[in-house]
Design a protein that fits this description.
It contains 17 helices and 14 strands. It folds into 2 domains: 269 residues, Rossmann fold (3-Layer(aba) Sandwich); 74 residues, formyl-coa transferase, domain 3. The longest helix has 24 residues. By secondary structure, it is of the alpha/beta class.
Length: 405
């Protein structure tokens, strides 16, 4: 696999950092997740459970090793330093300044491990007026202006179903980490990566910045081609209260659809700017799609060269044969569903490992690999500096390493 031989330290929590490091684990990296000795990763207890294990945690921490370590203890910091000396990447998502106060900031780590690629993920970055604001995904989407574009049917800002700030920081952060690793092959030195979630959002809306940049005017979502102003790029309700989406703005798709409906005279309107000029087309399509069920339209669109999709529920997606065939949704022998890895190589493909670590399951293994003696590990245990999973906790997390079916 592409990242075999790399060791990654995951000091992050919740979503952006854990997803970044899980993608690396899926492609062969050894990821050591550093967890607090009390509760560990907060997502262990968030949301729905399967056999006592959080779906959220399993979806973001599979294939990793868990080292439960007290970083407020000098011996815990020293253990992390020794691990950094034997690692390639460190990802942390503390609020700015926390890592430094703990003694594990970039300069402190790099003094012992100058080869380390160190990535910090935060809401607004390590500098600037918003540096110390406490926040999560939704607030950064609001601050970066993205939420102002996400309007519900009532015209008011609506909470997006995708944590875009978290996930974009994760994926752009992964790109940055891999860039730094590539450069390190020539220089022998690592680097520091300052990833701001809000900045990742700004970088990903260039197509919706036209009116703001050209005229300092907030875009009217009803007039924007990618936000619903185009009659062929929007969402329509069906007779059974379902929903379908049209996703093609090119005139050829409008011609294909309106010709099939016997309304070719409406094609010319689709050549006009998005917004009011296309309202007759939108009104016609709204009335038409309301005459039949969602399932009817799914069948009707088959074989037609028109960008169309039903608005699927999440359970429907999990059972969709396309995503199943491509292993984007997999089921292990325990019957648990898992989300696959979308980074696909023809040579050296990634491999999803379903095992989910118990808190502190690999504490002893990792420390032994750093040449800690049995007596030193026992001392760390006695000092309350590490936690080790019990055999019962480990057993509850096993049985997930089987191939997909």
């Amino acid at each position: 696999m592409k990242l075999a031989g790399l060791r990654v330290i995951d000091l992050s929590r919740f979503l952006p950092g854990p997803m970044l490091t899980q993608f690396m684990a899926d492609h062969g990296a050894e990821v050591v997740k550093i967890e607090s000795i009390d509760e560990g990763e907060p997502t262990r207890t968030i949301g729905q459970m399967r056999d006592g294990i959080s779906v959220f945690f399993a979806n973001t921490n599979r294939g990793k090793k868990s080292l439960a370590l007290d970083l407020k203890h000098p011996a815990g910091v020293e253990a992390l330093m020794r691990l950094a000396e034997a690692s390639d990447v460190l990802v942390e998502a503390f609020r700015p300044g926390v890592a430094e106060r703990l003694g594990v900031g970039y300069r402190q780590i790099a003094a012992r491990a100058p080869h380390i690629v160190y990535a910090s993920i935060s809401a607004y970055g390590q500098t600037g007026p918003y540096r110390d604001l406490a926040t999560h995904d939704l607030a950064t989407e609001a601050m970066a202006g993205v939420l102002s574009l996400n309007r519900g049917m009532d015209g008011k800002p609506a909470i997006p179903g995708l944590p875009a700030s978290d996930m974009l920081a994760s994926m752009i952060g992964l790109s940055g980490v891999l860039m730094a690793l590539l450069r390190r092959k020539e220089t022998g030195r690592g680097d520091y990566l300052d990833m701001a979630m809000a900045e990742c959002l700004l970088a990903c809306i260039p197509n919706n910045m036209g009116s703001a940049m050209a005229a300092r005017r907030q875009p009217d979502v009803g007039e924007e081609r990618s936000l619903g102003g185009n009659a062929l790029y929007t969402i329509y309700e069906t007779k059974d209260d379902g929903w379908i989406a049209l996703g093609g703005q090119e005139i050829k798709f409008a011609a294909n659809l309106l010709t099939a409906f016997g309304r070719p005279e409406l094609i010319e309107l689709c050549k006009l700017p998005p917004g009011k000029a296309q309202h007759p087309v939108r009104d016609y399509l709204r009335e038409t799609f309301r005459t039949k069920s969602r399932s009817h339209w799914v069948e009707w669109f088959k074989g037609r060269d028109i960008p169309f999709a039903p608005v699927n529920s999440l359970p429907e997606v999990l059972d969709d044969p396309h995503f199943r065939q491509r292993n984007m949704v997999m089921t292990d022998t325990r019957g648990w569903d898992h989300i696959g890895n979308p980074i696909r190589f023809a040579d050296e493909p990634g491999q999803v490992r379903f095992n989910v670590p118990a808190l502190g399951e690999h504490s002893q293994e990792v420390l032994q690999g750093l040449d800690y003696s049995a007596a030193e590990i026992a001392q760390l245990r006695d000092q309350g500096c590490i936690k080790e999973a019990t055999p019962q906790e480990i057993a509850r997390h096993t049985g997930l390493g089987d191939p997909p079916r």
